Amino acid sequence: MMCKSSDECHGRSTYVTSIVDSVVRTFWVKNNVRGVVLALAKMSNHSVLVDVLSACMDKSEIFTLEICALLLPLLKDLLTSQYDRYLTVALSVISLLLKSFGSIIQETRLAARPAPGVDLSGEQRLDRCNKCYEGFVSVREILEPLVRRGGDAAQAASELHMALSEVR
């Protein structure tokens, strides 16, 4: 929809932002982190995503393997942003996820052997670890141009790139 005036565009933008905030707040109040992440993915609003991630940085206990797997594609998308704040938040969250889950992902993937019988929780964990691994690999591919680009985020991108190269 095209706006006929700047006031109309501002009104629509404010309306959309309030709807986004309302949906995210509803999931947040219910302590449904998965719902928050899924809602953020559907909305494709980098500004709200960065605000929510910034609020979550001090609450690392809310992150799980499942949340990590859901967040990595969103974070990868944020790394293409032109805004330094978005890059900084994305790099910080990716580093936090890597510190929290890197060894679990690596150990689970290395220990994966077919076992007799059915181990649904083990298979589910391996699947999540594989999704996280794939997400980290795709993030690592984007970091090299960020390092070459320079700027405030280049040092953090370089450190994260080195850390991600150790994940197998």
From TrEMBL:
From the record, give the transmembrane residue ranges.
Answer: none
Q: Does the keyword Oxidoreductase apply?
A: no
Q: Note whether Cytoplasm occurs among the keywords.
A: yes
Q: Which GO terms describe its cellular component?
A: katanin complex
Record-level Gene Ontology MF annotations? microtubule binding
Task: Please name the GO terms of the biological process aspect recorded for this protein, alphabetically.
Answer: microtubule depolymerization
Which locations, inside or outside the cell, does it occupy? Answer: Cytoplasm, Cytoskeleton
User: Which keywords does this Swiss-Prot/TrEMBL entry list?
Assistant: Cytoplasm, Cytoskeleton
Q: What is its main location?
A: cytoplasm
Q: Which InterPro entries match?
A: Katanin_C-terminal
- Which residue ranges does the record assign to the Katanin p80 subunit C-terminal domain? 23-164
Q: PANTHER family from the entry?
A: KATANIN P80 SUBUNIT, KATANIN P80 WD40 REPEAT-CONTAINING SUBUNIT B1
Name this protein carries in UniProt: Katanin p80 subunit C-terminal domain-containing protein
> Lineage in the entry?
Eukaryota, Viridiplantae, Streptophyta, Charophyceae, Charales
